Amino acid sequence: MVTMEPIVVGEHVLVGVEVKLPKTTLLTINTSKGYIMCGALDVGLLNEVLGDRKIIAARAVGVRTLEQLLHAPMESVTTEAEAMGITVGMTGVEALLKMI
Protein backbone atom coordinates (compact mmCIF):
# COMPACT_ATOMS: atom_id res chain seq x y z
CA MET A 1 0.00 0.00 0.00
CA VAL A 2 1.32 3.44 -0.94
CA THR A 3 -0.09 6.59 0.68
CA MET A 4 0.67 10.20 -0.11
CA GLU A 5 -0.36 13.04 2.15
CA PRO A 6 0.28 16.75 2.46
CA ILE A 7 2.71 17.68 5.23
CA VAL A 8 2.66 21.27 6.46
CA VAL A 9 6.03 22.65 7.54
CA GLY A 10 5.92 26.34 8.40
CA GLU A 11 4.04 28.00 5.55
CA HIS A 12 4.91 25.23 3.07
CA VAL A 13 2.96 22.15 2.00
CA LEU A 14 5.28 19.22 1.27
CA VAL A 15 4.61 15.67 0.11
CA GLY A 16 4.74 12.80 2.58
CA VAL A 17 4.91 9.27 1.17
CA GLU A 18 4.44 6.04 3.12
CA VAL A 19 5.08 2.67 1.45
CA LYS A 20 3.97 -0.37 3.45
CA LEU A 21 6.17 -3.36 2.65
CA PRO A 22 6.43 -6.78 4.29
CA LYS A 23 8.08 -6.29 7.68
CA THR A 24 8.89 -2.59 7.11
CA THR A 25 7.53 0.77 6.06
CA LEU A 26 9.39 3.29 3.91
CA LEU A 27 8.82 6.94 4.84
CA THR A 28 9.84 10.08 2.98
CA ILE A 29 8.96 13.77 3.04
CA ASN A 30 9.93 15.69 -0.09
CA THR A 31 10.58 19.29 -1.07
CA SER A 32 11.34 20.42 -4.60
CA LYS A 33 15.09 20.30 -3.78
CA GLY A 34 15.52 17.27 -1.54
CA TYR A 35 14.03 14.91 1.00
CA ILE A 36 14.27 13.30 4.40
CA MET A 37 13.72 9.58 4.77
CA CYS A 38 13.64 6.73 7.25
CA GLY A 39 16.57 4.40 7.92
CA ALA A 40 16.17 2.65 4.55
CA LEU A 41 18.00 5.57 2.90
CA ASP A 42 21.61 4.71 2.08
CA VAL A 43 23.47 8.01 2.46
CA GLY A 44 26.80 6.35 1.66
CA LEU A 45 25.47 5.17 -1.70
CA LEU A 46 24.13 8.64 -2.50
CA ASN A 47 27.48 10.24 -1.65
CA GLU A 48 29.80 7.67 -3.20
CA VAL A 49 28.03 6.02 -6.13
CA LEU A 50 25.57 8.76 -7.06
CA GLY A 51 27.66 11.75 -5.96
CA ASP A 52 27.53 13.32 -9.42
CA ARG A 53 23.75 13.72 -8.99
CA LYS A 54 24.28 16.06 -6.01
CA ILE A 55 21.31 14.63 -4.09
CA ILE A 56 20.13 16.62 -1.09
CA ALA A 57 18.88 14.13 1.49
CA ALA A 58 18.94 13.29 5.18
CA ARG A 59 18.12 10.15 7.13
CA ALA A 60 16.50 9.44 10.49
CA VAL A 61 16.51 6.01 12.09
CA GLY A 62 13.96 4.33 14.34
CA VAL A 63 10.95 6.20 12.96
CA ARG A 64 7.66 4.48 12.14
CA THR A 65 5.42 7.38 11.08
CA LEU A 66 5.72 10.58 9.05
CA GLU A 67 5.08 12.58 12.23
CA GLN A 68 8.02 10.86 13.93
CA LEU A 69 10.18 11.55 10.87
CA LEU A 70 9.42 15.27 11.16
CA HIS A 71 10.63 15.45 14.75
CA ALA A 72 13.45 12.89 14.77
CA PRO A 73 17.10 13.96 14.70
CA MET A 74 18.84 13.35 11.40
CA GLU A 75 21.34 10.52 11.83
CA SER A 76 23.20 11.17 8.57
CA VAL A 77 23.09 13.65 5.69
CA THR A 78 24.47 13.72 2.16
CA THR A 79 27.42 15.90 1.25
CA GLU A 80 25.11 18.20 -0.73
CA ALA A 81 22.74 18.54 2.23
CA GLU A 82 25.67 19.40 4.47
CA ALA A 83 26.74 22.09 2.00
CA MET A 84 23.26 23.66 2.48
CA GLY A 85 23.73 23.80 6.25
CA ILE A 86 21.83 20.60 7.09
CA THR A 87 23.61 18.77 9.90
CA VAL A 88 23.43 15.55 11.85
CA GLY A 89 21.21 16.06 14.91
CA MET A 90 18.94 18.60 13.21
CA THR A 91 15.25 17.64 13.33
CA GLY A 92 13.39 16.66 10.20
CA VAL A 93 11.50 19.96 10.24
CA GLU A 94 14.74 21.95 10.48
CA ALA A 95 16.30 19.97 7.63
CA LEU A 96 13.22 20.36 5.41
CA LEU A 97 13.09 24.13 5.97
CA LYS A 98 16.68 24.36 4.68
CA MET A 99 15.66 22.34 1.60
CA ILE A 100 12.92 24.76 0.59
From TrEMBL:
Xref: InterPro entries: DUF1805, YunC_sf
Gene3D superfamilies, alphabetized: Hypothetical protein YunC
Organism superkingdom: Bacteria
Protein name, per record: Uncharacterized protein YunC (DUF1805 family)
